[in-house]
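Q&A log
Question type: sequence-to-structure
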Amino acid sequence: MILETKKLFFKKLNIVLEDVYFDQIIREKEYKKYGSVVAVTYRFLSLPEFSCVEKFTAIIDLTQSEEGIFRGMSSSTRNEIHRTEKDSDFVFKYSNSPTKDSYELYSSFEYTQGRIPRPILELKQSHFFGMWYQGVFISGMYVMVSFEYMRSRSIFSKRLSLESKDMRRRASNASRRLMWEMCIWGKKNGYKGLDLGSVNKNNPKTRSIADFKLSFGGNLVKEYAYIYKSKSFQFFERFVHLKHFFVRLLRRGF
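Response status: OK
Response body:
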């Protein structure tokens, strides 16, 4: 995925698993025309003008047979997927871009988690996978594609706002079914792997998310995020951070 955005008069560029394009802008020094560039790749590179953040991600191998992919999942995950397949009240839908109702649920879920949702324009290149139960939209996922890989961008559901324990369980089952549907779709469309995003079991706040991702049988792979910021953009960021710092102080009565 290649995405250009703007922040005031600064141009920003995000490159996710597009190694050929990233190599090109490095070779031709095109990155210098941007205020900020963030590139995600599985390769370790020596780039003096870029900082680098290393993380582990989980990748499901889609070159396996469908049976092999499914067998690699944990038994509890397979059971939950089977439950949705046997229950005709579950309905699966796919769209090659975010829908209005999916963005509303995504935004609500992010705010509930204390996060700010990405603008819908930043998600326009995402594919949408969703599950409904008895006509109620209960779970969704946004996925970006960068041939030869798919990458999970956002996982969201109605689980946190459901009062019924049974419905919360169904929302959980639906999320696992969606992951399976993405594997099927990705394999049929020639993708080599489904990247589930950052996995960190050492942080108590993210351990449950890591366990969820690893229940699908993905392999842990190191990913690298290379970050370039122009001097003027760095100055702008310091100014914004300083402004926010003083605003917080004023709110506290200092």
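Response note: Helices lie at 19-27, 66-71, 75-86, 100-112, 165-188, 207-214, 231-251.
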